[in-house]
């Protein structure tokens, strides 16, 4: 994997978590399928639809599924069981090594944030699993902002906490909605291609 780093200078790096630092998107997908089966929800969630909503907070994710499939799924119930299924599969998660290597090489040179549409609990577990939690200066998750990706809120919040001008932050993202959010925040972005369905994001 080649990371196409745009010309700077930059004063901070902001990384998405799932699909960018961690090859965890297939694990999340499997957790959703197990959750729907456990809850008796008859919904054919395709990989294409799942990846098209990558980066969307879980309650918004379920809301969109309800709209599309004319259902009334309880997002809190899905959140509880999906997180349980995901935690049980943490040992399957591997780092996206080129991105993790870049993050580690940046330590001490630039401040580092992780900005994820996931929950604090899941994201924290994932970062510990891939061995980077100690290198992150600021962590922003879905609970910290009113609007999830593709709104720019999560990246703007990360820049605010890092005390860096958004225009001087570089975002690393795998998902189309995340790339859109970064651009809306006035930030340049590096597209991390970890799955065929994410190639449209560039």
Terminal Cα span: 14 Å
Note the beta-strand portion. Answer: 5-15%
Fill in the CATH topology of the largest domain.
Answer: Rossmann fold
Overall domain count: 2
User: How much helix, percentage-wise, in residues?
Assistant: 40-55%
Describe the structure.
There is one protein chain. The mean pLDDT is 93. The protein is 42% helix and 12% strand. It is of the alpha/beta class. It has two domains: 121 residues, HAD superfamily/HAD-like (Rossmann fold), CATH 3.40.50.1000; 66 residues. It is built from eight helices and seven strands; from the N terminus they run E-E-H-H-H-H-E-H-E-H-E-H-E-H-E. Helix 8 links the parallel strand 6 and strand 7. It has a five-stranded parallel β-sheet, with helices on both faces. A two-stranded antiparallel ribbon has the order 2-3. The longest helix is centred in the N-terminal third of the chain and has 14 residues. The chain starts with 11 loop residues before the first strand and ends in an 11-residue tail after the last strand.
């Amino acid at each position: 994997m080649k990371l196409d780093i745009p010309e700077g200078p930059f004063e901070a790096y902001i990384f998405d978590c799932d699909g960018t630092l961690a090859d965890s998107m297939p694990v999340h997908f499997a957790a959703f399928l197990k959750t729907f089966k456990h809850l008796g929800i008859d919904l054919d969630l395709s990989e294409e639809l799942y990846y098209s909503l990558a980066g969307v907070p879980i309650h918004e994710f379920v809301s969109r599924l309800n709209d599309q499939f004319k259902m009334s799924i309880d997002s809190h119930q899905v959140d509880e069981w999906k997180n349980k299924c995901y935690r049980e599969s943490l040992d399957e998660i591997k780092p996206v090594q080129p991105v993790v290597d870049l993050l580690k090489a940046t330590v001490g040179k630039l401040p580092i944030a992780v900005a994820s549409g996931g929950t604090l609990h899941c994201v924290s577990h994932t970062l510990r699993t891939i061995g980077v939690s100690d290198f992150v200066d600021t962590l922003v998750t879905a609970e910290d902002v009113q609007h999830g990706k593709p709104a720019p809120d999560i990246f703007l919040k990360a820049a605010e906490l890092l005390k860096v001008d958004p225009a001087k932050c570089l975002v690393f993202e795998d998902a189309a909605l995340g790339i859109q959010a970064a651009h809306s925040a006035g930030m340049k972005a590096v597209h991390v291609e970890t799955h065929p369905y994410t190639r449209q994001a560039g």
